[in-house]
Specification:
By secondary structure, the chain is an alpha/beta fold. It folds into 2 domains: 260 residues, Aspartate Aminotransferase, domain 2 (3-Layer(aba) Sandwich), CATH 3.40.640; 130 residues, Aspartate Aminotransferase, domain 1. Helix content is 41%, strand content 13%. It has 16 helices and 13 strands. Strand 2, helix 4 and strand 3 form a beta-alpha-beta unit. The longest helix has 20 residues. The protein is globular, with a radius of gyration of 22 Å. The protein starts with 10 loop residues before the first helix and ends with a helix. Bound molecules: pyridoxal-5'-phosphate. The site of pyridoxal-5'-phosphate (PLP) has 14 residues, from helix 3 and helix 4.
Length: 402
């Protein structure tokens, strides 16, 4: 059976984790700080904070910005539920908008959805393909949009406009006009979950890139305290001689990353650009090459003159089929011992969100993308022979079912 996306766990990862275990310091400490530094260097943003998950990172930023009941947050209908759930946790209203054929949020639809209650827009770099950031960043600075903004908290007043919080869970290493994700919007959040390109088993990072009126290093400190129960000293600082007393300045959260997780991340980021992304690109290129002769295959766009993906998920669509037929094709592929997946069932189709009154009929492009989509396996250890096996299984299964 060819798996869908097992993590890359080579000797380097294992050695680095063992090194941390032997050091005796296993929670947040020097490895986490070093990993943060590496992320900032790699992505070109101003400061990075590692957290326990991508979801925790998104939620922490909404909380920092003071998002609460009565606020509206704009996000694409086509995403993983995490993007929406964190909004619900804050008591705010998720405002889903339809996406483009390239799976990313439509800027035209964002514009239509903005009201005087909008506080944050969360674009999602779906499958690793960056959103239209020039257009999104310009939109929130437009005079008529600025006029609608109704700031309530100190941070909202200081920014003076809608915050762009990029859900970059898929897109570390992706590029937009030569700049890497993490540095493309006010704030971006990466996920290092086990299935993501770069993994710490579970984990995430907040990449700060706020405009000049903010001191990003200071915001880092404030977020760090928020991620650790509002405690003024972390565990490592408290181990210094006589340094036991601390204060709690707010009821913070428990969202910190451990040094064990950071060790995995450090092993991964070292060869991420030169080895992992190269391998993933090779898989994308080979899939495209092998599939392009089939009329039924709608191949994903993953590189344009402006954008370069992080090659996270290969989103194949089959032309002129419906959801039921797609599901049958997927079953046939599994029957040939190849694992595939669907990224994603749009959030408005999920029971909880349906119950809130959201209706997938309002997001026709998201539904069309979803109903014909099959994600193919992409992972470091996938061999050329296995790539061929995958394609043979896909071609046979589609042709059996057409
Ligand atoms: C994985 C994922 C997240 C959440 O990341 P976790 O680290 O699992 O919390 C958020 N958004 C999207 C689109 C994701 O795929």
């Amino acid at each position: 059976m060819i798996p869908f996306s097992p993590p890359r766990l080579d000797k380097k990862v294992i050695d680095k984790v063992v090194e941390v275990l032997k050091s005796g310091w296993i929670t947040t400490g020097p490895k986490t700080k070093l990993f943060e530094k590496k992320i900032t260097e790699y992505s070109g943003n101003k400061a990075s904070l590692c957290v326990s998950s991508g979801s925790a990172g998104l939620e922490l930023i909404l909380l920092w910005f003071g998002v609460k009941k009565g606020d509206e947050i704009i996000l694409p209908a086509y995403t993983y539920c995490a993007t929406a759930n964190v909004i619900v946790h804050c008591g705010a209203k998720p405002v889903f908008v339809d996406v483009n054929k390239d799976f990313d949020i439509s800027v035209k639809n964002i514009e239509k959805a903005i009201t005087d209650k909008t506080k944050v827009i969360i674009p999602v770099d779906l499958a690793g393909f960056p959103c239209d950031y020039d257009e999104i960043n310009e939109l929130v600075k437009r005079k008529d949009i600025l006029k609608k903004f109704n700031p309530q908290t100190k941070e909202q007043k200081q920014l003076g406009r809608i915050l762009i919080l990029s859900d970059s869970a898929h897109s570390i290493g992706a590029e937009y006009k030569g700049k890497k994700t993490g540095s493309l919007t006010d704030i971006s959040v990466f996920s290092f979950h086990a299935v993501k390109n770069l993994t710490t088993s579970e984990g995430g990072a907040i990449c700060l890139n706020l405009p000049k009126l903010f001191d990003n290093k200071n915001i880092y400190k404030c977020l760090y305290i928020k991620s650790l129960h509002g405690q003024t000293k972390d565990a490592l600082a408290k181990t210094k001689k006589g340094n036991w007393r601390y204060d709690i300045i707010e009821p913070g959260y428990k969202f910190n990353m451990t040094d064990i997780q950071a060790a995995m991340g450090l092993a991964g980021i070292e060869h991420y650009e030169t080895d992992m992304l190269v391998k993933r690109k090779h898989i994308f290129d080979t899939y495209s090459q092998l599939l392009k002769k089939y009329k039924w295959a709608q191949l994903p766009v993953y590189e344009t003159n402006k954008k370069k993906t992080s090659y996270h998920v290969f989103l194949l669509r089959i032309k002129n089929i419906n959801e039921q037929k797609r599901d049958k094709i997927i079953q046939s592929i599994f029957d040939k011992d190849v694992s595939v997946n669907v990224h994603f069932v749009p959030v408005p189709m999920m029971s909880y969100y349906k119950g809130l009154g959201y209706d997938i009929n309002n997001y026709p492009v998201a539904y069309d993308n979803y109903s014909r989509e099959i994600s193919l396996p992409v992972y470091y250890d996938l061999t050329d022979k296995q790539i061929e096996t995958v394609i043979n299984a896909v071609v046979k299964s589609v042709e059996e079912n057409l």
